[in-house]
Every structure is written in C-alpha cells, then in structure tokens.
Design a protein that fits this description.
By secondary structure, the chain is α/β, with parallel strands linked by helices. The chain has 14 helices and 13 strands.
C-alpha cells in the first residue's frame, strides 16, 4: 500500500457525515448520531463541529499511534428511532470503535444497549439524565448529572425565598425524571413543584403559556431544548410578564440566546464545562482548533464541551494497548484515572464512569452574553 501524504491523512479525519471510506484497521473510526437537521439541528451541528475540529488538529500532527481519527456523523433529525438505526449502521458497516457525543438521553436510550452488546465504548452523551447515569457499563460521561445542576439552581432560588417553582419538561421518561428530581428536592422543604409537560418537537401554544402563568411561579426551571425554551421566554415577555428562569445546560446556551433574543436577558443557565471565554489552556486549545478547522464564529459552550470530550477520547486512544481496537479502547477508558485536559479535570476508574461534577451558573446579559 502506498504511503499516504500528510494532507491525505488530514482529509481522512475530516469525514463528518455519510459513508466511511477507511477500513477500521486503518483509522480510529468514531461513530456519532446527531440531529444535523430538524428542530435541534444547530445543537447537533455544534456537537459535531467541536469534536471534528479537535480530531482535525490531531490528524494534522500525524494521528494517534500512526492512525488518523475519522469522525462519522449520521443525521438522526432528533428522532429516537433514527438514532437507533444510525447506531446499528455505525457499529456494523462503519466498524466504529467508539460512539461519541449523542445529543440527548432520549437519542441515547436505544443506542446504549446496542453499544453494550457490541462491547463498544459509548462516550460523552450530551445529557446528565438519570437514564444515562444508570446506563450499561460501556457508557462513560464527561459532564455532571442533571441532579447536580438542579441542586445548584434550586439551592440558589430557595435560598432567595422562592416557593412556587414550575418545571418545564418533556412528557417522556427522561423529562418526567427531570421533574421528579426537582420535586424530590422540594419535598424535603415541604414544597411541591408545578409540572409543565411538553411534547418533543412540538411548538408551544398560547394556551399553554396561559396555563403556566396561572400557576403563579416564582421561578421557572427549564429542562427542555432551546426552541421551546425560547418560545416560552418570548411569549411571556410579549405579555408584559417577567418570571425568573433557570435552565439546565441541556438547553444549549448560545442556541437559546440566539432563539430568544432580548427575552433571554436575565435567564440563568447552568454550565458543566468552563466558560468558552475563559483563559484556561483547554479553552485556548479548542478555540485554536476551531479556528484552524475553518470555523469563523466565536466558539460556544456546546462546541467547547464536544472538543473537550474529543480530547479525553483521544487520550484514551493514546493509552490503548491495541490501536484501532474497540475492546482495547474501552479498557483504556476504564483505567484512565485522573486526567487534566488543561484546567478541566475528569476522573475515571473501576466503578467510576462519570468523569465530572463541575457545575457553575451563568446569567444572560442584556447584550446577549452568558456571564
């Protein structure tokens, strides 16, 4: 086989959708199902792009153990069944040695058992839901749990005297679990949360906003994506009302801010990685990787989290005793231990599949910045 040039290796790692054109033994094939179209497309593309930029930077230096990293991203349009079908393709015809960066717990629910059956690492889903925290042994997370995030924001609001708390959540098993986490916390204080369920991929009707406001909430806890969260903020503001809101990191901070416009001001959003405007080494490294990959917009928190996840995965690849092998990579992740990515630390080991409990609260300013 002819020796590939540096540029050929770089282009091999740039694959972000469609068919795999490298054999598994020639590359570290990382599979991803993400919403590249549909109601959550911006979020999905940001996850893909943050990881893709980092893998490009790795390939520009010769790859890992002489093999390039190939990211294969298939579009699931934010649909659970499609994500499952994509996973079957990634594990089958694409021969993925790891699955990475699925955009939610719902999109991961059917994929995680498939990864477990194949003995393939399922790494860094963008969810802190309980369903992911209690997942099969091949599932490793990068971020804190939603329970960690909710406790942080509820401690703040109840400490400020809030009594009536409304929870915006999806009407499925993951959304119900988020509501239950809030309600369980409030029960210890003799309070009950108001449940405001929404259907996934559906718009928020004016009558629903009327119902939400009728509960007279002191604060709204948002656990849904940027689209419906922004609709709620805009419709409340349009009625001349103001209700404080805190949102899980799941909303996608930049996506929510862009969608909500002026109505986003004052909303607090939890963050599970450092601020993309900080000067930590890993933030600087990821920002440069994004720039070198040709992305001209300022890096947002979703892209940063994906980039950090890609860096952790790359470190497990370096420690793998058999390059390009799925089982060896899983073993390397299981024994990774404490790893400082450059100001953001994760720790993995036997029985420790969840790398971080880092949570901080940011607030959206009037000029659309998260501070």
């Amino acid at each position: 086989m002819a020796t590939k040039t540096w540029w050929q290796w770089l282009m091999l790692g740039a694959c972000c959708a469609g068919g795999s054109w490298a054999q598994a033994q020639e590359a570290w094939v990382v599979g991803q199902s993400a919403p590249l179209s549909g109601s959550n497309a911006t979020f999905g593309r940001d996850i893909r792009d943050g990881a893709l930029a980092y893998f490009k930077s790795i390939n520009a230096k010769g790859g890992i153990a002489g093999k390039p990293v190939e990211l294969v991203t298939l579009d699931d349009a934010n649909d659970r069944k499609t994500a499952a079908a994509n996973t079957t393709k990634l594990l089958g015809s694409h021969s993925a040695i790891a699955l990475f960066g699925y955009a939610s717990a719902t999109l991961s629910l059917d994929a995680m058992p498939l990864a477990n059956s194949a003995g393939v690492l399922f790494f860094a889903p963008f969810s802190g839901a309980q369903q992911v925290r209690q997942a099969p042994a091949v599932v490793y997370t990068l971020r804190a749990s939603y329970a960690d995030e909710l406790e942080k924001m509820l401690t703040m609001w109840t400490g400020m005297g809030a009594r009536q708390i409304a929870v915006v959540h999806y009407d499925d098993e993951v959304g119900q679990q988020n509501y239950t986490a809030v309600n369980d916390y409030l029960k210890r204080q003799g309070k009950t949360a108001f449940s405001f369920p929404l259907k996934r991929n559906a718009s928020v009707e004016a009558s629903q906003i009327t119902q939400l406001l009728a509960s007279k909430p002191d604060v709204i806890i948002n656990t849904v994506l940027s689209g419906p969260a922004a609709e709620i903020s805009r419709q409340i503001a349009a009625r001349g009302n103001h209700v404080p809101m805190s949102s899980l990191s799941f909303v996608g901070a930049q996506q929510y801010i862009q969608a909500a416009g002026e109505a986003a001001a004052g909303v607090s959003i939890s963050q599970v990685t450092p601020s993309p405007s900080s000067r930590l080494p890993v933030v600087t490294e990821c920002a440069k990787a994004m720039q070198d990959a040709g992305f001209t917009q300022v890096m947002n928190s979703t892209q940063l989290e994906a980039c950090i996840g890609a860096k952790v995965l790359a470190e497990a690849m370096r420690r793998s005793k058999k390059p390009g092998d799925a089982h060896a990579l899983l073993s390397a992740m299981q024994t990774l231990g404490r790893y400082d990515t450059g100001g953001f630390v994760v720790t993995y080991g036997p029985g420790q599949n969840h790398g971080s409990k880092y949570v901080e609260l940011g607030m959206v300013t009037r000029d659309g910045k998260l501070r």
